[in-house]
Specification:
Length: 197
């Protein structure tokens, strides 16, 4: 996309997000966009796609669980029955559709990075890994001990960083006593095998 047209799109999306998301969530979205750009620089990914995917990843986060479920049904988005037990993951799944409708984003790589940003999946594309990790490591997430190591690893070994991130977030979900979605467990098995643990 031409630079002028791209900057105009970014401006429009930021305005929409600022109007719809809570202040902290908007700041987080900006931070995920910037972190995605940095990771894209390190791993040879298109910077515009990284910025758009990072900026839009939480675009549907302001919607309630019931609203998200209804929106998925209205748009005929296939849902696994287990998502009803973990409706907190629906904002990514519906977010891809939201970005297409509201921001006219048609690029499948970007939409897929938004869709999978919470759960991850086996064999992610580089852009999917970048947005998944950027969501986890961006600066506003604070200084939890495990983040220091993952932040450094993400810039040199995406697969190892994804594995560590999946391990930590699956443990976190289980600790909260919530249902852990099978896609994340499949992703963990895939990246553990890839990194030979
Ligand atoms: N496989 C799965 N099955 C079911 N539910 C799942 C899931 N994977 C993720 N989720 C849940 O889905 C929700 C959306 O996750 P995300 O999409 O990853 O992140 P978010 O919208 O910014 O999360 P939110 O603000 O709602 O939650 P939190 O700060 O606690 O968390 C922010 C992020 O940091 C991680 N995190 C927070 N504290 C952590 C800790 N102490 N250790 C490790 N990871 C931690 C969380 O996993 C999350 O990715 C989260 O509640 C998450 O726990």
């Amino acid at each position: 996309m031409e630079e002028k047209e791209f900057l105009q799109k970014i401006e429009e999306i930021r305005k929409h997000l600022q109007e719809h998301l809570k202040k902290e969530r908007y700041e987080h979205s900006l931070s995920v966009a910037f972190t995605s750009i940095c990771l894209a620089m390190a791993h040879g990914v298109d910077l515009q796609k990284a910025e758009l995917a990072g900026l839009c990843h939480d675009c549907a986060k302001y919607m309630g669980k019931k609203e998200l479920l209804e929106a998925c049904q209205r748009e005929h988005i296939p849902l696994l029955p287990e998502y009803l037990e973990a409706p907190q993951v629906l904002h990514g799944i519906y977010g891809a559709c939201y970005a297409k409708k509201h921001f006219q984003i048609d690029n499948e790589e970007i939409l897929s990075a938004i869709y999978y940003h919470t759960l991850g999946k086996p064999a992610m594309t580089t852009l999917e890994k970048i947005v998944y990790l950027a969501d986890y490591i961006e600066v506003r997430r604070g200084n939890r001990e495990d983040l220091t190591a993952i932040r450094e690893i993400a810039f040199r070994d995406l697969d190892l960083a994804v594995k560590l991130c999946l391990e930590a977030s699956i443990a976190y979900v289980k600790e909260k006593g919530q249902h852990c979605c099978s896609l994340s467990l499949d992703a963990l098995a895939y990246y553990q095998e890839k990194k030979e643990v």
